[in-house]
Specification:
- It is built from 1 helix and 5 strands; from the N terminus they run βαββββ.
- By secondary structure, it is of the alpha+beta class.
- A hairpin with a 1-residue loop joins strand 2 (59-68) and strand 3 (70-80).
- The longest helix has 20 residues, at 29-48.
- 22% of the residues are buried.
Length: 118
């Protein structure tokens, strides 16, 4: 017979807890490739939230990651000049064959804005 485990309660994410995001790292080619592939989806999500801007460029600068049933990435992306956005991307585990997808986006960010879980 199966044992029923209690459902986990929502617990606020603390950066020092296992499963937290840890420190920001410089974006590498893999992160940039994921961002490039998701640029249009990120723009659509930003515009669907009422933002009416565009991305002159989409260059990943830094990121944090969180391992779950796949990996959550939180990426600071330069969109031209001093403009930045923060993009939340979920990459499913490789065996699923599913592509990464944009979960959320925060617009009107600066290079100095801290990259946090969202």
């Amino acid at each position: 017979s199966k044992v029923q485990l209690p459902r986990p309660r929502n617990i606020s994410t603390n950066m020092s807890m296992p499963g937290g995001t840890g420190d920001a790292k410089d974006a590498d080619e893999e992160i940039q490739a994921m961002c490039t592939a998701l640029k249009d989806a990120a723009l659509q999500k930003a515009q669907a939230s009422g933002w009416n801007g565009t991305f002159a460029e989409f260059t990943a600068k830094t990121y944090k990651s969180q391992v779950v049933a796949g990996t959550n990435y939180f990426v600071k992306v330069n969109t031209g000049g001093e403009k930045h956005v923060h993009v939340s991307i979920f990459q499913p585990l490789p065996h699923t064959g599913e592509p990464p997808e944009v979960q959320d986006i925060q617009v009107d960010k600066s290079a100095e804005d801290a990259l946090e879980y969202f």
